[in-house]
Design goal:
Distance between the termini of chain B: 76 Å
Number of helices of chain A: 12
Low-confidence stretches of chain B: 1-23
CATH class of chain A: Mainly Alpha
CATH superfamily of the largest domain in chain B: Periplasmic binding protein-like II
CATH superfamily of chain A: MetI-like
CATH topology of chain A: MetI-like fold
Shape of chain A: globular
Oligomer: heterodimer
Distance between the termini of chain A: 32 Å
Largest sheet of chain B: 7 strands, mixed
Mean pLDDT of chain B: 90
CATH architecture of the largest domain in chain B: 3-Layer(aba) Sandwich
Largest sheet of chain A: none
Chain lengths: 293, 414
């Protein structure tokens, strides 16, 4: 229960936050939900109620199914690659060596620039012509140009690689914060017991990192499901729909095709999916934390 | 004596004109006009400075959103929140919604609109009224590397057959025949379609939208021809699906590609990279040598909000841009062809011939999405996705055409 003195003291902050949160998040979510039952085009002053028509259409839409699949593949591989790399990198960050601060800054820097800019940089890096940086470098060692952004699964691999590059350093910092909170006593006790380096990592570091793993994987999943700017500037969602993700498709449908009602239905479905995935992930992570600890 | 009289007359005319302008400025109220531009402020600055000098009481609050997606998004947000700027741009992608929903004022009676040539006027017409002032048109085709052509004894092709042969020779000599961006390479099918089919039925897309014709009727044979003549032999290479704007310019400017599909704006970008060769131009050819339609479109148009409280002042701004000297500044901004009566276009000499032919009404311009009304962006997105899938061999020509038809049905809520 709220203490009345406490409430009086902090009420302006709480009310301010509540108003902002409601205006910027709750209201748009409710509006999207309302629009999803209309045929609003984003320009008209009126919209007709169309019932569940938008919902029925989106589940028959091939681009929607492709985008949904792509979003999940993207998330899955981001978690799979970023998590071990970030944990390993955090151990390096935590070690004692001269250039430690520089290395921490260098890896953290990749998460600082605008994601849009990163997309454009990677577009030049993976460019298919002789002016593409990676192909130019490969050419110097006699390797023929590779169609990074068009051949088979390479477009998706390239987008995942760009996102891994962008986020690994940042997630390593999350693990580092947790590592620095682990008491030295555990390690000293393990040393006295003669535990190997691997066993120290396996039975002390990793279990105690579990809460950070929960937070990190949840952030990767949410970030991955919401990804927009990176594929927008990097691949434009192509070729075809190979790197089109849900957020892109929602915006394309609403802004480009002027089907705000339909794109709102997509957003509502996607919102529910993200919520369910996050809750499942949270449940299993907490369960795993309890088991490990 | 004659010279003195002429000088006096000229001075009198200038003074009369200046007085008229001052009077006009005095008749207007001091106000602030909000302006959402399609072009960035640094490009617009010369026009804004000249306007501020002539109309010191009218302040232009300039806003910019990058075309096309960001601009459309911003405009959509502004319309839905009732914050439509006093002056803004409309383009092929949103003109139907903006006009039909009453956001644009009828500017039929303005001096600016009266100066436009028919094509530029009619692009933004609805029910006999004009809603946009589009003073320029972009015309495009292929820019080519004259040095490579000269080395290989090639000449600018006048027919599709010659064009395919040029591509063949370029490829045999280790030069990429055509460079285009991943979202635009489909434009290489337009030459035969525009000149062999569309020139005889300029209402084709209108008929497709109405349902009396299909994509298969008009586009079908030409997509097939494009696939067989350019895609199968690899003249339009699979890697084009991921070519960015930067690579598009640099690949041509560094001499790695023989042909670049584009317009005056692209030529300016290539010239910035200082290519060490001479550049030539030819329109996209059809089966016969007689070019009737070229790749191009009337540019986006300046419109006035129907809800502005400063209609007269906004019209003054529009008429100011339409002045002969200002429209030249406007053209410097984009390098396109001026579509106004009695004003010659100061285009790059490389494009002089095609610009003259357009100004004289000898050729028409065509870009698919400019003819798709409210479905423009949706069909364009489908065109990009399906052309990429076709180039990568994921679908065939029939599926490509069917996808376009299905998308139209979906957009029409059929």
């Amino acid at each position: 229960m709220l203490n009345s003195r406490f409430f009086k003291k902090f009420a302006p902050f709480m009310i301010g936050a509540f108003v902002l949160y409601t205006a910027l998040l709750i209201v748009p979510i409710l509006l999207s939900f309302a629009y999803s039952f209309t045929n609003w085009d984003g320009y008209s002053r009126n919209a007709d109620f169309v019932g569940l028509k938008n919902y029925m259409k989106i589940f028959r839409s091939a681009p929607m199914l492709a985008a949904l699949k792509n979003s999940f593949i993207f998330c899955f591989f981001n978690v799979l690659v970023i998590t071990p790399l970030a944990v390993a990198l955090s151990l390096v960050f935590n070690a004692n060596f001269k250039a430690r601060n520089f290395v921490r800054s260098a890896f953290f820097f990749t998460s600082v620039p605008s994601v849009l800019i990163i997309g454009y940089i990677f577009q030049l890096f993976f460019g298919p012509t002789e002016n593409g940086v990676l192909n130019a470098l490969l050419g110097k060692i006699g390797v023929d140009p590779i169609r990074w952004l068009s051949a088979g699964i390479l477009p998706m691999v390239s987008v995942i690689a760009a996102n891994v590059w962008r986020l690994t350093g940042w997630h390593a910092c999350i693990y580092l914060a947790r590592l620095q909170g682990i008491s030295e006593e555990y390690y000293e006790a393990a040393k006295i017991d003669g535990a190997s380096r691997w066993n120290v990592f396996r039975y002390i570091t990793l279990p105690l990192l579990a809460p950070a793993v929960t937070i990190s994987t949840m952030l990767i999943i949410i970030d991955g499901l919401k990804i927009y700017a990176l594929p927008y500037s990097f691949t434009g969602g192509g070729p075809g729909y190979k790197t089109t993700f849900m957020t892109q498709l929602i915006i394309k449908t609403g802004i480009g095709e002027k089907k705000v009602g339909r794109s709102s239905a997509m957003a509502v479905v996607f919102f529910v999916i993200i919520m369910v995935v996050s809750l499942i992930q949270l449940y299993f992570s907490r369960k795993r934390e309890d088991e490990i600890c | 004596m004659k010279k003195k009289v002429l000088a006096l007359l000229t001075m009198a005319a200038v003074a009369a004109g200046a007085t008229g302008a001052v009077q006009a400025a005095e008749e207007l109220e001091d106000c602030k006009l909000t302006f959402l531009s399609w072009y960035p402020e640094e490009k617009y600055q010369p026009i804004l400075d000249a306007f501020a000098k002539e109309y010191p009481g009218i302040e232009i609050e300039f806003q910019y959103a990058a075309p096309v997606a960001d601009y459309l998004e911003k405009m959509q947000v502004l319309t839905s929140t009732g914050e439509v700027p006093d002056i803004f741009y409309i383009a092929a992608e949103n003109k139907t919604e903006m006009i039909e929903n009453g956001y644009c004022a009828d500017i039929s009676g303005t001096e600016a609109v009266s100066k436009l040539v028919d094509a530029n006027k009619s692009t933004y017409e609805a029910d006999g009224k004009y809603y946009g002032f589009a003073p320029t048109t972009w015309v495009g085709g292929y820019f080519y590397n004259k040095d490579i052509f000269s080395e290989l004894n090639l000449e600018a092709p006048a027919t599709w057959e010659e064009f395919v042969n040029v591509c063949k020779v370029l490829q045999e000599n280790d030069t990429r025949p055509i460079i285009e961006r991943g979202e635009w390479f489909w434009d290489s099918f337009l030459g035969p379609f525009m000149n062999d089919y569309l020139a005889g039925d300029m209402d084709y897309h209108k008929e497709v939208l109405e349902g009396s014709k299909t994509f298969a009727d008009g586009w079908g044979p030409y997509i097939q021809k494009w696939y067989e003549d350019l895609i199968v032999p690899g003249y339009v290479g699979e890697d084009l699906v991921s070519v960015s704007s930067q690579e598009f310019f640099s690949e041509f400017a560094t001499g790695h590609a023989g042909l670049l599909a584009g317009h005056a704006g692209h030529l300016l970008e290539v010239q910035k990279l200082e290519p060490e060769f001479e550049i030539g131009f030819f329109p996209m050819p059809g089966t016969e040598a007689d070019v009737k339609v070229v790749y191009g479109a009337v540019d986006c148009a300046v419109a006035i909000s129907s809800s502005t409280e400063h209609q007269k002042e906004a019209e003054a701004f529009l008429n100011f841009i339409a002045r002969d000297d200002m429209v030249q500044l406007y053209q410097d901004m984009n390098g396109y062809v001026i579509g106004m009566e009695g004003i010659e276009s100061d285009v790059d000499p490389i494009l002089e011939d095609v610009a003259r032919r357009y100004s004289n009404g000898e050729i028409g311009v065509y870009i698919p999405q400019g003819n798709w009304d409210a479905y423009g962006t949706g069909l364009q997105q489908q065109l990009i996705a399906s052309s990429q899938e076709l180039l990568l061999g994921d679908i065939d020509c029939d599926t490509f055409i069917q996808n376009m038809q299905d998308k139209l049905a979906e957009l029409k809520d059929e």
